[in-house]
Amino acid sequence: MIELKGIAAANGISIGIAHKIGKEDFIVPKDNITEAQIPLEIQLFEEALIKTRREIIELQKRIGSDMGKNEAQIFDAHLLVLEDRMLIEEVISRLKKDKLNVAFIFQEVLKKYVSVFAKIEDEYLKERISDINDVGKRILRNILGKERKGLSELKDKVIIVAHDLSPSDTAAMHKRRVSAFVTDVGGKTSHTAIMAKSLEIPAVVGVQDATTEINAGDMLIVDGALGLVIVNPDQKTLDLYHTAEEKLRGVNEKFLSAKDLPAITLDGVKVEINANIEFPDEVPGVKLHGGEGIGLYRTEFFYMNRKDSPSEDEHYLAYKYVAEQMNPYPVIIRTIDLGGDKFLSQFQIPHEMQPFLGWRAIRFCLARPEIFKLQLRAILRASVHGNLKLMYPMISGIEELRQANKILDEAREELRSKGIPFDEDIQVGAMIEVPSAAMTADILAEEADFFSIGSNDLIQYSLAVDRANEKVAYLYEPAHPAVLRLIKNVIDSAHKGDINVGMCGEMAGEPSLALILLGMGLDEFSMPPQVIPELKYLIRSITLAQAKEIANEALKLPTGREVEDYAQSKLKEILK
Ligand code: PEP
Ligand code: MG
Q1: 300 Cβ inside 6 Å of ligand 1
Q2: Which residues lie near ion ligand 2 (Cβ < 5 Å)?
Q3: Nearest Cα to 159, choosing from 173, 141, 142?
Q4: Alpha-carbon torsion 334, 339, 344, 345, what sign?
């Protein structure tokens, strides 16, 4: 039994079998395989060789016609490597003997070849090393790519162990049989973590050596609240966790008793408790957990796992469905927030050194108005079917808000000219997730109908901490005094400007921090559906006056750690 410590990303306990998936840049997993899996691994290897051969011939043809025959000849050497019987036979015989996954064996054999060639005093042969490496990488990518594709075909309930999971990986897993995630990299608000919450499964991210320490088929306990992964637990630990699972169910039942009641404080102040969703089919889950509306509908997922772009009707039908299902409750659709860690192949977004500071969200939309306007028209058209609002991500100042509104006006005009109805009074909000927007919230409040604080990004930008990087995760502190002061400024400015202010970042669903936000006067809290019952229970257990006192005390504390400890102690007192 070993214990691996990571970052607690989504609460819950899961006990199950590890399923590992590979990664593009070749951190090759080492997995034991059974006798029965040997033919499958050999097949995987042979298919990868065939695919690699096809790729190289194609490349050779293209280079031949673009650059000439001589340049194309270098690929002859690559093809020879592919046909090297000694290399192929060594892989297969070691596979049978060592019973390890073929990607790992292949990589080992490749390393051996390279070291043998490196020792030979012959310039020509030395040059072959780069050929072997090049082809080797191609073959590995094809072996691992194959493993990755299997993601959407999982049959048994498993715990996914990966170096990293991209938003498109997690989208492919949606509703599949996954009971928890464990990843080497990532932080508390990386999209893997957010996705885990929306799938209602525990997740531990940033474990660093998960993929090297865990073998496929290992028994795992994932403790999402503690950020702990126990590999091959002994019976005593297993029993302990089975009991903890039971207890957790009991606590959840207590919270569930509040799910259909309004979120009113003991002194009669009502706040809105909404849900964050990524897919229309999450709506039943929102209702089941007592969500009073949708505070954040992330729409990037329309663009994932596909080569083409979604049509206006595809957007429209999804928004119409969500609007109708939630009616009369509000649904806030966030316009596409592509870029950052949600990049896509179909738009050829160039590689950037700092994608989170780069061409993302509203910046991308303003530069590609045809894509933006298509979505805006779809939202407007759907607005007659329920209580829809829309908001723009990553607004950094009033000019961007005005530019976005100008394109929205054009979309309105296009619909009017065609006689297509829409809600003329649709509310248009700005997400406040860039420090410059938080500092100028008073200016923005004059022209926005509402604010929604995107704390996930606001924290990363104000503390200069990449939200998805486990190495700096210790600095990612939602309770940092700088973050609290920015949030307080946004709430006060919104109220002075007479508009509502919500929060849709993960912080809104953290019970201890929600106490502070309530005390600061936040009007709306939007969170993953499954935390709604606990938040409602909490708000119904406290007076606003008490919450204000907690917020005032918290704002006086000098460090995030002290704020966190203080809020936790208050939470314990309130929930007893
Ligand atoms: C946020 O930044 O807090 C937010 C809700 O947006 P996302 O997590 O999608 O960036
Ligand atoms: Mg954001």
Answers
A1: no
A2: 433, 454, 457
A3: 173
A4: positive
Task: For residue 498, give both structure tokens.
Answer: 């007479």
457 CB under 6 A from ligand 1?
yes
pTM of structure: 0.72
- Preceding peptide of 328 cis, ω within 30°: yes
Atom from ligand 1 closest to the CA of residue 298: 9
Which residues in 24-173 belong to E strands, given as ranges? 158-162
Collapsed DSSP state (helix, strand, coil) of residue 476: coil
Q: Do 342 and 431 reside in the same domain of the chain? A: yes
Nearest atom in ligand 1 to 340's CA:
10
Do residues 465 and 374 both lie within one domain? yes
Q: Provide the number of structural domains found in the chain.
A: 3
Q: Is residue 547 part of a domain?
A: no
Ligand 1, atom 1, residue with closest C-alpha: 454
CA 60 – CA 443 distance, rounded (Å): 58
- Angle, helices 102-119/38-67, rounded to nearest 10 degrees: 60
Residue 564: other Cβ atoms inside 10 A:
19
- What range does the domain containing 124 cover? 35-144
Would you say 197 and 526 are in contact if contact means Cβ atoms under 8 Å apart?
A: no
In angstroms, rounded to a whole number, what is the distance separating the alpha carbons of residues 338 and 357?
A: 12
194 CA: nearest ligand 1 atom? 8
Question: Residue whose CA is closest, atom 6 of ligand 1?
Answer: 454
CATH of the domain at 374: 3.20.20.60
CB distance 504 to ligand 1 below 6 Å: yes
- Tens-binned pLDDT, residue by residue, of the chain (576 aa): 999 999 999 889 999 999 888 654 456 788 888 888 888 889 889 988 888 888 888 777 766 665 666 666 667 777 887 888 888 899 999 999 999 999 999 988 888 888 887 777 766 666 667 677 778 878 888 888 754 545 556 667 889 999 888 765 676 665 567 899 999 988 887 777 887 887 788 999 999 899 999 998 899 999 999 999 999 999 999 999 999 988 888 888 889 899 999 999 999 999 999 999 999 989 999 999 999 999 999 999 888 767 678 999 999 999 999 999 999 999 999 999 988 777 665 676 677 888 899 999 999 999 999 999 999 999 999 999 999 999 999 999 999 999 999 999 999 999 999 999 999 999 999 999 999 999 999 999 999 999 999 999 999 999 999 988 889 999 999 999 999 999 999 999 999 999 999 999 999 999 999 999 999 999 999 999 989 999 999 999 999 999 999 999 999 999 999 999 999 999 999 988
Structural element, H or E, at residue 130: helix 123-149
Backbone angles phi, psi at 523, to 5 degrees: -90, -30
Which candidate, 556, 508, 554, 516, places its Cα nearest to that of 535? 508
Enumerate the active-site residues. 191, 504
Q: What is the CA radius of gyration of the chain?
A: 26
Strand bridging mode 228-231 / 2-5: antiparallel
Residues 454 and 382 in one domain: yes
For residues 118 and 174, membership in a common domain is answered with no
